[in-house]
Amino acid sequence: MLRRPIDPALHPEVPGPGRPAPPGYEFAGFRRFELVLRQLGGIASRRELLAATDGDETSFWFALHYGYLDRVRTGWYAAATVPPDARAAWAAGGPLACVSALVHHGVLDPADHQIDGTLHIALGRGGHRFMTDRPVVAHWGDEDRASGTRIAVSLETALRQARWCASAHQ
Questions:
Q1: Do the beta carbons of residue 37 and residue 79 sit within 8 Å?
Q2: 9 falls in which pLDDT band (50, 70, 90)?
Q3: Pick from 23, 37, 2, 19: which is nearest to 11 by CA?
Q4: What single-letter DSSP state applies at residue 25?
Q5: Could you count the other beta carbons within 10 Å of the beta carbon of residue 29?
Q6: pLDDT value at position 19?
Q7: Phi-psi region of 65 (alpha: psi -120 to 50; beta: other; left: phi over 0)
Q8: pLDDT recorded at residue 13
Q9: How far apart are CA 22 and CA 90, in angstroms?
Q10: Which residue pairs from 136-142 have beta carbons closer than 8 angstroms and sit at least 24 positions apart in sequence?
Q11: Cα–Cα dist 37/32, whole Å
């Protein structure tokens, strides 16, 4: 169960991208995990969430149990604002890559990217690909994976990967 994202127009006091927490601001209740996830770029590990919320294991467990945290794979959680393809990519092992990242960056139209529903992800050398219900193409490389955010590789990396991928599949 996902909660709707916090609308900054309705709640300008809530920290988020470009809106740091004011001095003395205290996160309230389970919602603090969503706020921390957003500050960490949308996807974070359990360890990062606990470190950012003073290691409150009990609140973490309750937030997970009552649907305030969305687990995308073991030990990793996503903010409500993370797009479905990015969630699927992270569940498969890493951020969006290649043509999937180009769709995320707005370079390709999602309607044009209906190429058999394949998800392209970036994995580092020590990465693992997890089983998913979609076909996945893994693009291996530590530099590629670190080039962007946890949501998607950088635009430059995605363009390079797409050129390589297109030539490899012809």
A1: yes
A2: low
A3: 19
A4: -
A5: 10
A6: 57
A7: alpha
A8: 54
A9: 31
A10: 136/92, 136/93, 137/98, 137/165, 138/93, 138/94, 139/97, 139/98, 139/165
A11: 9
Could you say which DSSP state residue 168 is in?
H
pLDDT at 124 over 70: yes
Place of tokens 């092992």: 93
Distance of alpha carbon 62 from alpha carbon 47, whole angstroms = 16
Closest CA to 102 of 113, 91, 94: 113
Quote the CA–CA distance of 166 and 163 in Å, as a whole number.
Answer: 5
d(Cα 6, Cα 63) in Å, to the nearest integer? 16
For the cut 60, the answer to whether the pLDDT of residue 10 exceeds it is: no
The position carrying tokens 């050129």 is: 163
Tell me what pLDDT residue 53 has. 79
CA–CA gap between residue 117 and residue 59 (Å, rounded)? 37
Query: Which alpha helices (H) appear in the chain, and where do they start and end?
Result: 31-39, 46-52, 57-65, 84-92, 98-104, 142-146, 155-168
Q: pTM of the full predicted structure? A: 0.74
- Residue 100: how many other CB atoms lie within 10 Å: 30
Question: What local confidence, expressed as pLDDT, does residue 18 receive?
Answer: 57
